[in-house]
């Protein structure tokens, strides 16, 4: 149940972030959402680790 709730919360946070990245990139907000969805599937297929950052928030790692 905790994983389901975590997934919902992450989805709620990632949605406006994906829209903002789409607009900032000069494309439509829909393309930002589609890219975030496709990237999420690709990241999950490639596996991961406890320290991996995936989804739209991964772009902020350059700043950190």
Automatic annotation (TrEMBL):
Q: What is its main location?
A: membrane
Q: Which InterPro entries match?
A: SLC26A/SulP_dom
Q: Record keywords: Transcription included?
A: no
What protein name applies here? Sulfate permease SulP family
**Which first-to-last residue range defines the signal peptide?**
none
Q: Where are the transmembrane segments?
A: 7-27, 33-51
Q: Which UniProt keywords apply?
A: Membrane, Transmembrane, Transmembrane helix
Record-level GO cellular component terms? membrane
Topology of the protein relative to the lipid bilayer: Multi-pass membrane protein
Q: Pfam families under this entry? A: Sulfate_transp
Subcellular location per the Swiss-Prot or TrEMBL entry = Membrane
Q: Does the keyword Repeat apply?
A: no
Q: Which organism is it from?
A: termite gut metagenome
Where in this chain does the record put each SLC26A/SulP transporter domain? 2-64
Question: Which intervals of the chain form a coiled coil?
Answer: none
């Amino acid at each position: 149940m905790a994983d389901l709730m975590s997934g919902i919360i992450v989805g709620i946070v990632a949605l406006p972030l994906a829209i903002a990245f789409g607009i900032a990139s000069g494309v439509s907000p829909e393309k930002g959402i589609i890219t975030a969805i496709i990237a999420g599937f690709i990241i999950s297929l490639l596996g991961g680790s406890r320290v991996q950052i995936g989804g739209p928030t991964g772009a902020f790692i350059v700043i950190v």
